[in-house]
């Protein structure tokens, strides 16, 4: 197992170096001069322009810039935003919990609904329930979620007025962030209604973000279950007279979970992509929206640092999924 | 990542092509959803091809006297603009009809680019193995390390926002799936007897790669193509929605949505209809994709 | 410290909009702002969003603009004198002005001359210890040419400061009312420098302004409390909250739901509904901006004034107001907006007359003209949709036999290329005023110095230039008004631009908000506002 872990990490490190190079090159290729953009209609003199480019370090040769950048990274410095003048890492860390909270809630919702739905659909294959779940899952899978979010806002916030339109918690409540997760912080604050308010703000974005993972998990669980249910040992278990719940719940589920875990792990990248759209629609102050804003504002250091940090997180999560997978299924460790 | 999982492939050789098609159709037509999806998809193709004849108006023609007309069944609507008009008086129905062209175009272009490049890279990686394989796969790992939409956004920001650039960006982010699938399939085939036999009789390398091995790896690729056709439409719409895809006044559905966002509370039809069009088209393609997968091989799985 | 605690308790416990339910409740005004501030030091930035959150709430300047007007009034300076030759400005500072007390800083002295000198010299002198702190780019200070203008700022005594200029400059006083000229606390800066964290003064601002910053949750909420010892008297509201809400439809939803009291930048599409909404007061005013199309007057045939005039007459401006501004705009006839003093009402706009335009072009021997129209890739206050505007102009020009091709570039590139002397085509652009002085429009955009720079028409016309140069050095406002009125007449005759529109700013505020005034500079000022 140890060697397996080492091997995996051995692959990740060069990939990450590649990621830094790609992120760096991308940023240099971005058209548009950030300094000119800041000046706007006002314009600026050549001399001032040159001085500002020098201050941001954009005037050095590309290779030198990359070398300096790697050196900074090695010291944990992801650069400084040219808009807010704060370290990119600090910006990222203040916004990251909002995205984590939203993504966690979405993935939990997706698993809680998708797993049982997929299981039951598999057990009752061909039934009305099965058809409904599979149709629903395919629809969810085909959903343009930015539009789905708008529809939900029109209906639940606009027409019914049940949920707030945007934000993370009602402005009534104010407390210093402790964990950055609004649900936890609102409980810690001990203020009446704060927790409930945080939940109400979370509902719609969670539903929107959970839509695609939910569909994928339901479909995956169903097909994994179907396959397992056809295996010999399940038939043996049935023949032994074990109760159907024991058979499906214990024997089959445990084996069906293996591919499902992989799928859940793979959803991390999908969640990030979804977070970009969901956060934009709901004005959710997370890193997805921050990245989009940074791209539009030509905030080079933020885009570059953000790309790197997000890629690092995706890679780490994938590594963990691989390890978990290997733990559950020893066969994997020895092949490849 | 399950790239090591060898994909099972039906053997194309023993049966004749016609028989094979018949067998395929028998499986496919068993799936009612797939047939429905196919019908809808064909309908969309027809609409797109004959948009010039079907659409009641030109997509960018502005009727200055008819801003934000509701659909005909609502008060104030008329059959002149069956699905209403948008903020500058353009006919929604006509724009939606022309929009079908863009979506199909996006799907075709993205899938073609991604498929061709992906298959070549995957074949090379799987056939030669060794360093070239490592290099290609590391590159794919790098692409996969970024969330697809984010990478596409940055790529479009680099290339400049336009429909063509959005398609290129989406094709690039979809690349790794084709490469991995092809590579896995090729590696699976390489150990089979017929490949060894072909090698022994001295079949040339290129011929071996493209004529002997490739056709036997097609089934998973066809399914992946259907899948990425729908993802391409969704991603292009998302980019359009973020202002990084097709630029106004192009009647691309995602771009229409972005333009309509400010009317969300005042004119439901300008927001709802383009979204419906996207959803239905993508759903139809995915239904078809499911049918294809089941028909080509019941054991092939989506991930 | 004590006041901070009571404040927090008030914000936490009170029901926001149950105003009047209990007399003791703190009054909290919520403003649904359109975006996150870039930071809290107004000297670094140029966007109104940042100024709203920093200079207009937290800081004061030596002089300020009377709320709702472009008139300059005393603020931290009680009075001032200008020397005969116009190069020495002496300011007498207000006494007893207190800085904010925050978690990080407790002031031991009142505001004085040191703070003024610190605030200006930091921006002025590259040797100043704070010059490079937080990146050190002083956008406005540079672009208003303050570096060239100010020779030195000297302390006469604790409450008297002298600005020495290199040349006379009539708009100087107005410049000092601008956001970048906000006064920081030198004592705070020194303390932070000693602690090794000088950048803190730009993140956690301390000023003399009517509100002090309590907390900023990035991209979500900014919270302020009224400054209890504010020199002009404590604000009528106790707490001010900026709820950052980038989407305009969402802002309106929140306004309707009572989740906020004031919102900026409504969707043009929602204006009609807002006007009817009994809960909402819809305020409106022309913005301090102008959207124009500048010909390149150095290139044929646009060097011919009759051709420019003819093209101006071919443009159907009303259609642009309807189609592009959706009513949230007014036809512009002068290069300065009507909210600026010296606006010349008497000037007659070129009439919309395609027939005559065509005839004029033919008379000048211009037939089958092909030209380019540049459309900006971004949305600006003076032009919400340049592409659409260009399309309308294209079809208007087609009617007089001129074939226009629409071109566009990435924004930075657009701004740069459009200054080229040999630029091919007419360019859509605009300007938002900085200090409410006519000089800020007429000299910057149409003066001879601006050719090849901000003067996109590349237009240098001596009679016009003489007038605006003279107006720069006269300090008598009536005399300046007369000169600028004449300049506008010459501008109209020469037609280097097609003046297109001034935006109309709409501000929906809830009924319970008392005395909110639209700021002509596009800002949002909450001192003086009350809640019923």
Automatic annotation (TrEMBL), chain A:
CDD domains: TM_PBP2
Membrane topology: Multi-pass membrane protein
Highest taxon listed in the record's lineage: Bacteria
GO MF annotation terms: dipeptide transmembrane transporter activity
Transmembrane segments annotated in the record for this chain: 9-30, 100-124, 145-175, 195-217, 256-287, 307-328
Family as reported in the entry's similarity comment: Belongs to the binding-protein-dependent transport system permease family.
Protein known as: Dipeptide transport system permease protein
From TrEMBL, chain B:
Domain ABC transmembrane type-1: 100-289
Membrane topology: Multi-pass membrane protein
Main location: membrane
Gene Ontology MF, one: dipeptide transmembrane transporter activity
Statement: the UniProt record of this protein carries the keyword Cell membrane: yes
UniProt cross-references to InterPro entries, sorted A to Z: BP-dependent_transpt_permease, MetI-like, MetI-like_sf, OppC_N
Family annotation (CDD domains): TM_PBP2
Transmembrane regions: 34-55, 102-128, 148-173, 213-243, 263-285
GO cellular component: plasma membrane
Keywords for this protein: Cell membrane, Membrane, Transmembrane, Transmembrane helix, Transport
Keyword Transmembrane: yes
Subcellular location: Cell membrane
Family classification: Belongs to the binding-protein-dependent transport system permease family.
Protein name listed in UniProt: Dipeptide transport system permease protein
TrEMBL record, chain C:
Source organism superkingdom: Bacteria
GO molecular function, one term: peptide transmembrane transporter activity
Occurrences of domain Solute-binding protein family (ranges): 71-451
Signal peptide start and end residues: 1-26
Biological processes, Gene Ontology terms: dipeptide transport
Coiled coil regions in record: none
Keyword terms of this UniProt record: Signal
Any one Gene Ontology cellular component term annotated for this protein: outer membrane-bounded periplasmic space
Matches recorded under PANTHER family: D,D-DIPEPTIDE-BINDING PERIPLASMIC PROTEIN DDPA-RELATED, PERIPLASMIC BINDING COMPONENT OF ABC TRANSPORTER
Family statement drawn from the similarity comment of this UniProt entry: Belongs to the bacterial solute-binding protein 5 family.
Protein name according to UniProt: Dipeptide transport system substrate-binding protein
Source organism: Desulfofustis glycolicus DSM 9705
